[in-house]
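Re: the request from the purification team.
They wanted to know what the chain is likely to look like in 3D before they choose a buffer screen. I agreed to run a prediction and write the result into the notebook, where they can find it.
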Amino acid sequence: MANTTNFSVRMDSDMKKQCEMLYGELGMNLTTAINVFLRQSLRVGGFPFEVKLDQPNKETMAAMLESERIAKDPSVKGYTDLDELFADLKA
């Protein structure tokens, strides 16, 4: 038999209930799910999924900055009427 130990994890009680229901539907309890996560972590040498901050790439960031500049530029024509916008687009 494997040598086992206990550890405690503090988590939101609602999240725990939701996870217990989810993993129960998959045929396992929360302890088994955590062990699966930890074994996968060891197998891949880190998180078994991508962990990152959602940051826009350079192209998206440039477009966002340009849109802010355009929005603040009083010389850029704005539209409150779609018909006017489409008429100008066709011209």
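For the purification team: The helical segments are 13-25, 30-44, 58-72, 82-90.
Please add any questions underneath this entry.
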